Amino acid sequence: MRFGQNYHRNFIPEWSEHYVDYNLLKKQVKLGNVTETYEYLDTAVSALKIFYKHEINAGSFGEEELDKLQWFGRVNLDAIERIIAKLKQKGHTGSPYPGRFAFLVSVRQIQLYNQQNGNGLQDGIGLQDGILAKRPRVANPLHMAMRHQDDERVHALVQDLRNLDYLSVRGEIALHVAAQLGRLDYTTLLLEVLAKNNLDHDIPDISRGWTPLFFAAVDGHLDIVQLLLEAGSDQHRKDHLGWTAKEYAVFKGHLAVAGLFDTTTVEDLTGGPEQNPFGASVYAPNHCIEGEKIIIATLGSSRKNRVVTQVDLSYCSSVYTPGKHESVASFSLTISALGNKSQLPRRVWLPILDDQINDPFIFSVASDVAAQLIFKVYRDTGEGNVLVGSGTALLESNSHQFGAGRQSLIREQTVPILDKETMAVAGTVTFTFLIAKPYSHDIQGPQGFSTPEEWTRALTPVTSPPLLVGHRGTGQNLVANKHLQIGENTVGSFLSAVKLGASFVEFDVQVTRDLQAVCFHDFSLSESGTDAPVHDLTLDQFLHASKVQSPHGNPLSTLGQPRYQDEGSNNRPRSRSLGGQFEAGAIQIRDRMKHTVDFKLKGFKPNTRGEFIQDSFATLKDILTQLPEEIGLDIEIKYPRLHEAVDAGVAPVAIELNTFVDVALDTVHQHSKPGSKRKIMFSSFTPEICILLSLKQKAYPVFFITNAGKIPMTDMEVRAASVQVAVRFARRWNLTGIVFACEALLLSPRLVGYVKKKGGLVCATYGELNNQPDVVRKQVAAGVDIIVADRIRLVAETLAVLN
């Protein structure tokens, strides 16, 4: 979620005509039209001064009116400052200086401006025709009624044809407004009246070339998108940047919306999303050095199902509500860390226009300093910032509640803000935080490939792209599969995957209570007969659940029925080479599991006798020491997630994040042979794990795994909700690439180019659809670098034909 995409949400309806057109200017900057951009900005500042003078002199202003006028100035000022910043990034300098617009920010300055300038400005001076009349234009009444969501006036005004095809200064008709608002009733009404009067509804706006369909798709309004498509909106139209509405829907994580569009072909895979490469990534520390720790904090919650006001004070807020708070644009929040000397406090103006999820506050402090964040609220008086309230968050104060080396899976914290004068609680600030600590061993370069270019060069001797990775070995265990399955996440499965054509094997690593890295996917070890999480068991307890089933020989079905081999085997029954005592053990463990939450949900458990070819549970040490070094390893760090604990009905507490990551790194460091050429990469669904892996080492590439909006979305993590936020997150923290649920990129293949060429990232995919040859062929054509699959032989044969 970015400022430009959500600009329309900050409109005050009656002044919506008079906002600086941020999207138009951004496009001009991208096209290199610098002169036109500066001319627009110079004109806009002059025009807005006239508009402001007119509004102030139009009548007496109460607090609510002044509040709205400040907000109007705040949004326009932000737009101008951002455009000037973009111009400076490209090496351009010129006018206007944002300070010329500062008179719009505070009540005091508004009043001074009114007193000092009164009639000092002449209407129309320096203005181009059509920018602003001598008397400011009033927004179209239908547009205003819709933005105010005044249903009665909307139904009355829609009967006037002049309102239906009225174009705002941004080239928007009323239907654009209805789509932006997500009002199905307005959209239905307007489409009916437009059709009745033979008026076109599929009109692109001026600044972006967006029709109403684009607005509905971007915001995920499924019912409105469906209605517009049925009305004949052109779903293949491209905007000024070459994007389609469907691509925006996928980009934003609205995969159900994207599914309403026609099937995308791979014939035209260039242009559009892949153009205009990103600039340099915003600041992020490159490494967590010895003797320091890094505090990373983000305002608000990182969970989609948590609606929380980031800054919620009696006199100001992070959310703008007209008339609710006084002097809305004159408050700011600063965030600093105790013991931080190298960086100034970060300041955020309130209300907040942007989503903060990928713009964290980062502070380096000495390891022996208590981790504390200090929040201060200031008010701009026109003569300087005055402190009005403050609060301190003790980030490590509750660690003793969970036991040594443990922490809550809820990383969100709320701190009270105390009023400076009364010391009463004035409100709260809610934030999410992570503390990164240095890794004790130096493994900063043995492999020497972390960038996409280094990654590609390193893998070239192994295989031609795309790289085939065996998912949990020869595939995830599912009872629905008709072919014979080797127990997932086992040494036998990994060896088999390589024989069938995989270059890498992917497996899940968790950490036990006694800090041993084990290879296991599920949150709980149901084989124990309980819903106990893996991190609450010792290594011996973990391995005992495996020993009970006895992996020696060729196991039988628990029901005494033969299992069948892989397709092409003529359904020959497997050998029955074990005695009855082993069959009894398999029955016993199944009876034990049937009372667990996990087994009740799925009806089976991976790598168990009777369902699959069961093999011994493995540790990360086993994999590193028993697999030949030519087998590449994709080590997925499977840190417990909040929804897993909730589903299992256990306390949301796990091993401390740094400890969890350090155990995995220690195991790799200790059991990798000197001079080993083994290729290893790390991956994780948990953003914090990816951040720590990036900060603690540079020897191995790190990949972020994301559903990118795939439904159902069990993990409510915001940073995993779309292609857009995933790419920004990966770039923000210097990750090598992203592993997407393949559905997103199948819906919009050109986004592969966006990830690779514009984002500068390696693009990988996973999912059951990756087992279908036609899906594999589409991804190869789109340029996917890595395919994680279950049906290794089938996919390997498909790739062999293509290469």
TrEMBL record:
Annotated stretches, region: Disordered: 549-581
ANK repeat feature ranges: 170-206, 208-240
GO terms assigned for molecular function: glycerophosphocholine phosphodiesterase activity
Any Pfam family matching the protein: C2_GDE1
GP-PDE domain location: 466-799
Taxonomic superkingdom: Eukaryota
Residue span(s) of domain SPX: 1-142
UniProt xrefs under SUPFAM superfamilies: Ankyrin repeat, PLC-like phosphodiesterases
Biased composition (Polar residues): 549-560
Keywords, in A-Z order: ANK repeat, Hydrolase, Repeat
GO biological process: glycerophospholipid catabolic process
Keyword Repeat among UniProt keywords: yes
Family matches, as PANTHER family: GLYCEROPHOSPHOCHOLINE PHOSPHODIESTERASE GPCPD1, GLYCEROPHOSPHORYL DIESTER PHOSPHODIESTERASE
Name of protein: Glycerophosphoryl diester phosphodiesterase family-domain-containing protein
Native organism: Cercophora samala
